[in-house]
Amino acid sequence: MTDTIGGKYTLLDAGRAGRLGTWHTVSTAEGKQRGALRLEDRGLTDPAAAQRLADAVSGQARLRVPGLLNVIDQVTEGRHSWLITNAAPSPTVAQALAAGVTLPPAVAALIATDTAQTLLKLHSGQLAHGELNAHGVVISAGGAALLAEAGYGHAVLGTTPGPGHDAAGWSRLLAQLADACHDAVTQQLLRQAGQQAEAVGGSAGITAALTTLSGAAQQITGFGDRAALKSLAARMHPLATTPVSASPMSAPPVSAPPVSAPPVAAPPVSGPPAFPAQQPWAAAPAFPPGAPAGVPAAEETVQLAGGSHSGPPPQPPRTAPPTAVMPVVPPDGATRMGNRAAEEQRKSGAYQVGRAAPPQAQQPQQDVNLRFGQGVPPAPPAWQMAAAQAAPPPRPRKTVGKRIAAFFSALTTVALLVIAGYVGWNWWQERNNAVQVTKVTVTPVVPPTTAECNVNVDVVGLIETDGQAGVITYEWLRNDGETSGALEQAVKDGTRSVQVHLFWRFQGKGTREAEATLRILKPTVIQGSSKFTYSCK
């Protein structure tokens, strides 16, 4: 394997195994560390799988989740495809646990809250990780827990991840963090939060557990201070010169009172509309302030399906804006929320799409990370609470007598409405039925001549009107006692006559005198008739 990728990135380590390939730490020409995932050929032999993976990467880029290991570039060199991420992919929580590192309570709680917030942000964009575990949680140099390969495995397999997968994966992660933390109170807090998330399920479960966890973690000394997490990232980094020791990490002495862990059972939560075939998705959170508004043209992203070629990327003309941009997390990979300096630069136009980024000296990057410690409001942001708002208290149950009375009251109301509707309809029909019948005539009938004694006689009645629109109600009467019952005939405006028919069937031999009468019932009573003789020998 060569030491460079596409002439732009230099390999710095031997790599570690990932879900879809091998992760490496690389360096740019400016000396910034990035992550590089070399995709395995067997996972992308199917063009449909490659397209689904490209769609997953593009969807996360559009969402701009700061807690992810986001893809900022793609390079194709030889038969290998590389996905370049905004931060180094090591160390991971799994590597720290495998080295026997004892996690201080504040560090374990920070990793738990960071990953929960990132999962909820994914859910708000109708996305999910689907395969969360300790191997996919990267500890960045900025002291934040980042999620790697979110949804990649499901995209290649053609399955759909959901909040239910993430709630179960986060619960298992919290159990591993509790095992690596030797503080009994923090262990109990993490395990109960994981059980609560899995019991409620989906985004609502993670939100409810995060609310409980972040509230109780305020009593943990050092919670919100990312110095210990940065120190762990520096010690565990594959390029670190200091050997990793399995001894516990130093933590400030705990002087706060013990944390009271709440029970596992959570009140019922009201979740937003369900996502297909999975748990309810969290309500859409507000986008964190200070997130970058765009990517400078120098970090133009190439879609996965087409790929880029090896060698330095072609330089577009200065007057042409980039054809595609992808948001990028700052180089240290920190979960930046509330970065006022970046927000002011965005408002001033320094980060507008299509413009080159200002010199490094004019872009101070303060270490403003997401934290729950001192100096921030105690309540979590609204987007964390949206999916786990407690349902209103149940109303007192009605007695059997009250239920029966309410049922009959509703039944009476429905019956009155039906009666009122029927009366109103008849009244409207009478008021709007302006047609008047002036004459009724039944055409003389000539029975058909046939050798068979089985014939149908068509008796035709002619109703003459005054030319107005309306509905005529009529009936046919036969002298054998049969009647057709009330029938209706609609008449359009300007129609002065209309025909109605009576089909009379005769069977058998003999002679019979027949008479058919057409009687008008509405709007006025009037009738006409005709006689004929049926004979068959």
UniProtKB/TrEMBL annotation:
Residue spans crossing the bilayer: 404-428
Region (Disordered): 243-295, 304-323
Stored InterPro entries: Kinase-like_dom_sf
Alphabetically ordered keywords of this record: Membrane, Transmembrane, Transmembrane helix
Keyword Transmembrane helix: yes
Record's compositionally biased regions (Pro residues): 250-275, 311-320
Compositionally biased intervals (Low complexity): 276-285
Annotated protein name in UniProt: Uncharacterized protein
